[in-house]
Every structure is written in C-alpha cells, then in structure tokens.
C-alpha cells in the first residue's frame, strides 16, 4: 500500500531543509525591501520607524552572532571564575553597539533602495542564489578544517565577504556599460540627485532626504569631475560609494542563512569546548534587551519626527534647508512669477547682446552706405532740376498746368519728379526687411532659450531670487535688435509698400516746402500767370486801334511780348537766385540725410 504524506508533513520536511529555509527567508527579505522601497515615500512615520527597527534588529543579530562565536573562542584561554572570564561572557554592550551600527547601515539602505533601478534590483535578486552557491563552495572547502562551534560563523563571514566582492564586480560592469554623468555645477548635481522622500509624510525623513541628496549631489559632482580625468578612476569612485550598500545586502543574506539553533547562541551563556550535553538556559536579559532596542528605535523615530514637524513650522526654512542653501543655494531671477537660473540667464543675455550688436552693426555697414548713395544721387539731380526749371519749355509747361491746378501742389510734384529721377531705393527696403527678419528670429531664439533656463524642478526654498521685469530683461541684450525691428516701420517699408524711396522723398518734399526759396518759386509762378494774362490783353487792345492789324494779330503780338518778357524774367531770376536755390535744396537734402542716419545710428 502506497503511503501518501500529508501536506503539513511535506511542509515540515521542506522547512527542515537548510536551503529551502534560507531561500524562503532571503526572498521574503528582498520582497519586503522592494515593497518598502516603492511605498516608503508615502508611508507614515510609524511604519517607516518600525521597518527601520526590524531591519536593524536583523542585521544586529547577525553581527552579535559573530561576536558570540569570537567570545567562545576567547573563552578557551580564560580561567573560569575570573574577572576577564565574566566580562567575556557578557554581551549587552555588543548588542547595543551592534544595533547602533546596524541602524546606521540600515538607514543607508532605506535611503538608497528607493533610488535603485531595474538593473540594481535584478542584481540584488541575483545575490540570493549567488550567496547559496558561494556558501556551498566555501563549506566544501572548509570541510574537516574547523571545529563545529566555529564553522558556521566562519562560513557566513567568508560567504558574505565573497558575495560582497562579487556584487561590487558586477556593479563595476554595470557602471562601465553606462556613460558617465556630467554636471556644470554642484547645484546642478544636487537638483539631479533623486529625492524620493521630498514629499514624505515624515518630516524627519524628508529633512534627512534633503541632506542625503546634498551628499549624493556633491559626491556625484566630484565623481563626474573624476570621470573627466580618468574613467577607471570614476568607476572606482562609484564602486567605493556603492560598496557599503552591497556589503550590507550580503550581510542580510548571511543573517538569512543562520539556523535557529545557531542564532539562539546569541542569548545563551558561552559554551566550554569539550563539554557535552550540558543544558544551558537562555539569558532573559539579553532577549529583553534585543527586543527593547528596536522598540526604542521606533519610539525615538516617532518622537523625533514629531519634534521635527514642530521645528519646521517655526521659521522660513528648516534646518536641513538652511544647510543645503548654504552649500548649493541657487541664485535666480523671478520674472513674471517664474524662477530662472541667474547664471544661465546672464550667460544667455551676454551672448544675445553680442549677437544683437553684431546684427545692428550690419545696419551700419550695409544699410547706411545705401542711404548715403541714395542721397548723393539726389544731390546730383539738383543741377538737373534747376536746369530744367530755368528752361522756357518747362516754364510754359508749368504755366499750362497751373491754369487748372494748385500752384503749391504742382511745384512740389515737379520738384519730387526731378529730384527722384533715376533713384531706386528698393535695395534699402530689401536690406531692412532682411535685417528685421533676422532680428525677429533672434528675439524668438532668446525667448525659447530663456524658457530652457527656467528652474521648474527646483524647490523655492533653495532659490535666492532677485525680481526682474520682462522689459528690463529684454531691453538690455535686445535693445539694438528692437531698433532693427522698428527700422522698416520708420522708413515706411511694409509688405504692401515694398520700397523705402516713397517715404524718403515725401519727407524731403515736406522739408523743401518749408524753405524760403520754395515760397519764391511759387510766388514767381503765380505772377507769371498774371503777366501772361496782361500781355494778351495789351496785344488785343493794340489790334483794335491799329487799322489793318485786327484783334487776332493784337493777341499774337501780345503773346510774343509775353514770351519775351517771360524769358527775360526767367533768366534774370536764374542769374539772381539759382545758386541760392541750389544751396537751399542741398541743405534740405543734407538735413534729411542727417535725420535718416540719426534714426539708424541711434544709441544702442
């Protein structure tokens, strides 16, 4: 008959197997650590303190076990009943000291575990079977080499050390496969450091997280600088920093490999080698002490967190924030309610100012020569205008047009047509449009790059802010550029107009209209009409009194007289006033040139 064992029997047998027990405890430990790492930033202070206490207790018992085994070895050399014998048999001091050291190491793991990525968690998980393999190899190597009371302790110590070294080697491989981080400053490294506890309900944990981030940031910055000099040195530096956590994981696995009978030795009197079947009772005060230490740590953490919460409400900054500000405080500009890195903004402003001035220099080097050439051409046309003006056909053309039009408007149109003859200012408008487009692109780039300087991820308590208005920010570096953007408008250039000549000639005519000589020209043209009318009437009268000539002949004679009189008056006016008119036209052109150049070469 086949005997089928119950599930409970099978379970007890499995749990009696050393490796099954080890794997169960190790995987439970890794799983608890993983869950805590994911939940720690949102856990209440009491839960964090309790987990810290349990992790510290586990690590301290492993440490205490090694101390007890070492005391057992020393016991052989001491005389029973002596003072040193009694001191050696005690362990309260080592339980307390071991717990304190373990609490410090456990806190390091608590702060580091939430920052581990997938590769690091896989490495921690891989360490579970790795430890089992190393333990088995070490046990085989030490078989028959050591006495039973010392064998397990030596196996655990050597296995933990070997696993720690192997984990460090594996970590070094991971570092070699990743590019080295680079930071421009220590504050940039601090901001890049992960701060999983920044929003933790535990004020104490949040404060400690800020200080940890400061240490991480400064360390990372130093390591990054090392990478610039020597990449192997960078790997070694990263390895030294990670070694404590890696050996801590190995130590916890060592605790998981302890059998209950071996762990019990921490609370038993020291055994004498050679004694057999001697019953030794558990020393209760050690059990009470071992149980009281994690409870005290939990209570102490809760009390400290409560006190930290009270203190944080008393000032503008907490103690941790003051320390961090002193070390890596960031100078910032406050612009329209947003914070910007002051150094980055000043560097950007300096660059934009240089490029803006360079672009403004193109206005002086490329547009000013075109403007000068345009006005020089107008100066050349002055003599042509006066030659035309003092010609008899032009005089009759004016008289013919003035009968139906305004004297002033016709005179200005004549002046504009002759002075602007052969002048094309389209190059000026094209160049202005081109430079204006470049100025607009520079302004857009400035705004885009300014947005990149925003300290959106930096906590406000870390910033030393100086308020600045957008007008002050843009007026400095983009002052010359703003003038370029206004230049086409000042010249009347637009997509519809497409030319600068229209506005130049218009302003020039307006200036000429105010000159004294123009008033004389208009006056002469008006008097010429009266002279012509009087000459015609006189000829007609003469035709009616002189027999045989008639009225028509009299009109012709009057016209001839008028032509002669006009020509004579025209030449007389030219002899008396041409040079004066010429100089006044030249002065008007030069005044207009000066105004245009002043608008282009205004102070930056």
UniProtKB/TrEMBL annotation:
Transmembrane intervals: 16-37, 43-65, 92-113, 119-138, 150-177, 235-258, 286-304
Keyword Membrane: yes
Keywords linked to the UniProt accession: Membrane, Transmembrane, Transmembrane helix
Organism superkingdom: Bacteria
Protein name (Swiss-Prot/TrEMBL): Uncharacterized protein
Lineage: Bacteria, Bacillati, Actinomycetota, Coriobacteriia, Eggerthellales
């Amino acid at each position: 008959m086949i005997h089928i064992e119950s599930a409970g029997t099978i379970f007890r047998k499995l749990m009696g197997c050393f490796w099954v027990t080890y794997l169960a405890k190790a995987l439970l430990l890794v799983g608890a650590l993983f869950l805590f790492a994911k939940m720690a930033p949102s856990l209440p202070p009491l839960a964090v303190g309790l987990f810290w206490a349990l992790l510290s207790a586990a690590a301290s018992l492993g440490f205490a076990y090694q101390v007890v085994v070492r005391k057992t070895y020393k016991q052989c050399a001491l005389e029973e009943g002596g003072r040193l014998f009694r001191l050696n048999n005690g362990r309260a001091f080592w339980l307390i000291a071991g717990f304190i050291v373990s609490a410090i190491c456990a806190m390091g793991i608590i702060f580091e575990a939430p920052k581990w990525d997938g590769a690091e968690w896989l490495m921690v998980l891989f360490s579970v079977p790795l430890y089992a393999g190393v333990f088995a190899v070490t046990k085989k190597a030490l078989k028959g080499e050591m006495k039973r009371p010392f064998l397990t302790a030596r196996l655990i110590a050597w296995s933990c050390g070997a696993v720690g070294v192997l984990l460090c080697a594996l970590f070094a491989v991971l570092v070699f496969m990743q590019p080295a981080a680079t930071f421009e400053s220590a504050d940039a490294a601090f901001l890049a450091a992960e701060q999983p506890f920044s929003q933790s309900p535990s004020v104490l944990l949040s404060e400690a997280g800020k200080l940890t981030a400061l240490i991480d940031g400064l360390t990372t910055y130093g390591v990054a600088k090392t990478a610039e000099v020597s990449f192997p040195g960078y790997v070694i530096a990263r390895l030294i920093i990670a070694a404590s956590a890696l050996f801590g994981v190995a130590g916890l696995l060592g605790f998981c490999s302890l059998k209950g009978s071996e762990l019990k030795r921490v609370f038993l009197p020291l055994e004498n080698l050679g004694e057999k079947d001697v019953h030794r009772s558990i020393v209760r005060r050690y059990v009470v002490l071992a149980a009281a230490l994690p409870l005290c740590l939990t209570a102490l953490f809760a009390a400290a967190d409560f006190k930290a919460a009270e203190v944080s409400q008393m000032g503008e900054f907490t103690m941790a924030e003051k320390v961090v500000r002193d070390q890596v405080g960031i100078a910032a500009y406050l612009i329209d309610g947003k914070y910007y890195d002051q150094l980055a903004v000043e560097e950007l402003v300096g660059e934009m100012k240089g490029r803006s001035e360079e672009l403004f220099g193109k206005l002086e080097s490329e547009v000013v020569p075109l403007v000068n050439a345009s006005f020089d051409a107008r100066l050349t046309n002055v003599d042509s205008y006066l030659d035309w003006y003092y010609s008899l056909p032009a005089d009759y053309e004016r008289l013919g047009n003035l009968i139906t039009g305004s004297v002033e408007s016709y005179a200005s149109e004549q002046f504009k047509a002759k002075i602007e003859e052969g002048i094309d200012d389209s190059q000026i408008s094209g160049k202005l449009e081109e430079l204006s487009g470049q100025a607009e692109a520079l302004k857009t780039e400035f705004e885009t790059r300014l947005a990149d300087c925003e300290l959106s991820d930096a906590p406000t308590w870390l910033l030393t802010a100086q308020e600045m208005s957008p007008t002050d920010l843009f007026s400095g570096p983009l002052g010359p550029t703003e003038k370029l953007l206004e230049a086409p408008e000042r010249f009347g250039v637009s997509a519809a107009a497409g030319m600068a000549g229209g506005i130049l000639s218009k302003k020039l005519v307006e200036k000429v209209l105010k000159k004294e000589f123009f008033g004389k020209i208009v006056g002469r043209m008006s008097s010429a009409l009266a002279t012509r009318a009087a000459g015609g009437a006189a000829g007609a009268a003469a035709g009616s009194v002189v027999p045989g000539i008639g009225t028509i002949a009299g009109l012709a004679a009057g016209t001839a007289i008028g032509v002669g009189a006009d020509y004579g008056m025209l030449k007389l006016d030219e002899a008396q006033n041409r040079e004066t008119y010429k100089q006044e036209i030249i002065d008007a052109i030069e005044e207009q040139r000066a105004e245009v150049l002043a608008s282009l070469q205004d102070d930056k």
